[in-house]
Design brief:
Elements lengths: L1 H18 L9 H21 L3 H19 L16 E4 L5 E9 L5 E9 L8 E5 L12 E2 L7 E8 L7 E7 L6 E12 L2 E4 L4 E2 L10 E6 L6 E4 L4 E9 L11 E13 L2 E8 L27
Parallel strand pairs: 10-15
Antiparallel strand pairs: 1-2, 2-3, 3-4, 5-9, 6-7, 7-8, 8-9, 8-11, 12-13, 13-14, 14-15
């Protein structure tokens, strides 16, 4: 499976790299994209109903080809793909880019993630950055990586991080899955520098004097849900405080769940400072539901902040 997965990644990269050169200017782009979307819906359905790894990854390869082919259509950035509900398509609040991300479940109870970042362009031409999941080779979850060495996730929310004197970065909130016992969620920081995408940035600060983290990863019992979202009223990224069911289970994330309290990260200067024990009403949303069997859920719709 690893070899086949590697070939799919190469296919994704090569297809995206040649996409810009193959643009044409047909009329009726919306009609074309509606037809392409219909084909993508069918392919995605086959992917998630496939009986085993071989069928899933073969269908995923077809899905990638069809998606890139659809995005070659001029002005495709303006087409929402709103009916393609089995993958996440979210747009940055400043409308400079959007992210397609999805996963392929495996027979081993794990997940492989796929995605691409599509940039807004003034001439409507295609500009894509493939996201190549390299989670299994990333031994330190705090490592700063690139789109070619991506700590994969299915993102559902983008939060701009605007610090004085710095270029805007973006906090990506995502579901990462994990295995048959635990689920993970992640707060990822995406930064752009010309043609380079960087994932991870030392902005997460728990207490003064401690080293800032580049990325935040939450892990908890798979049968439980976890809130992780941007709260406009509080002006921060808020989340459930996770704790073990029993103090003897400290560090064993199979036994972690929300303890009904909330923490958050608020931008202070150029750091995201940890705020503990926030008074917050836990209002369940579809953003909480990425657990147990997320392929049966509709992906969240991006929100403006």
């Amino acid at each position: 499976m690893n070899k086949r997965y590697f070939l799919i990644c190469i296919l994704f990269s090569c297809t995206l790299a040649t996409a810009s050169a193959q643009l044409k200017t047909p009329s009726g782009s919306t009609t074309i994209l509606n037809k392409e979307q219909d084909s993508l819906i069918v392919s995605a359905s086959r992917l998630f109903s496939a009986a085993h790894n071989l069928q899933r990854f073969e269908e995923n390869a077809r899905f990638i080809k069809m998606l890139v082919n659809a995005l070659k259509t001029p002005r495709s950035y303006d087409f929402g793909f709103d009916s393609l509900r089995t993958i996440s398509v979210i747009r940055s609040p400043d409308n400079t880019f959007r992210i397609f991300s999805w996963f392929v479940p495996t027979d081993e109870g794990k997940y492989r993630f796929f995605g691409t970042v599509q940039m807004a362009t003034t001439d409507g031409k295609l500009k894509l950055f493939p996201l190549i999941d390299d989670t299994e080779n990333i031994t330190d979850s705090n490592e700063i990586t690139t789109n070619k060495r991506w700590y994969g996730a299915r993102y559902y929310e983008i939060v701009p991080i605007v610090a004085s004197g710095s270029r805007t970065s973006y906090a990506l909130l995502g579901w990462k899955g994990n295995n048959s016992k635990t689920s993970k969620k992640v707060i990822e920081i995406l930064s752009f520098d010309k043609e380079v995408l960087t994932f991870g940035k030392p902005v997460f600060e728990a207490t003064a004097g401690t080293a800032a983290k580049n990325r935040i990863v939450f892990e908890y019992n798979k049968l439980n849900s976890m809130t992780l979202r941007m709260d406009k009223n509080e002006g921060m990224i808020v989340f459930d405080h996770l704790a073990p069911f029993d103090s003897n289970m400290e560090g064993n994330f199979e036994f972690y769940a929300s303890d009904s309290s909330f923490d958050g990260y608020r931008l202070v200067g150029n750091k995201l400072k940890l705020m503990e024990n926030i008074e917050l009403k836990n209002e369940p949303t579809e953003l909480d539901d990425f657990y147990v069997d997320p392929k049966m859920k509709n992906p969240p719709v991006s929100k403006k902040f």
